[in-house]
Design brief:
Keywords: Ribonucleoprotein, Ribosomal protein
Mean pLDDT: 94
Helix content: under 10%
CATH topology: Ribosomal Protein L24e, Chain: T
InterPro entries: Bacterial_rp_bL28 (IPR050096), Ribosomal_bL28 (IPR026569), Ribosomal_bL28/bL31-like_sf (IPR034704), Ribosomal_bL28_bact-type (IPR001383), Ribosomal_bL28_sf (IPR037147)
GO molecular function: structural constituent of ribosome
Low-confidence stretches: none
Oligomer: single chain
Order of helices and strands: EEEEH
Largest sheet: 2 strands, antiparallel
Organism: Fusicatenibacter faecihominis
CATH class: Mainly Beta
Family: Belongs to the bacterial ribosomal protein bL28 family.
Number of helices: 1
Radius of gyration: 16 Å
Length: 62
């Protein structure tokens, strides 16, 4: 599972509980995209970034 290169966000694990209170394992996946990003040296680098970091402007697309 990929992790965000900026905020290190990844998958979250927990237990899903139904109405009858039967419990089963559940995994919540983060919305992570593979994008081309402007690097610090002026070049272009491909990395995994979550959409919340893209929206907030922490990363600038190439």
């Amino acid at each position: 599972m990929a992790r965000c290169a900026v905020c290190d966000k990844g998958a979250h694990f927990g237990i899903k509980v139904s109405h009858s209170h039967r419990r089963s394992n559940k995994m919540w996946k983060s919305n992570i995209k593979s994008v081309r990003v402007k690097a610090a040296n002026g070049g272009v680098q491909k990395m995994y970034v979550c959409t919340s970091c893209l929206k907030s402007g922490k990363v600038e697309r190439a």
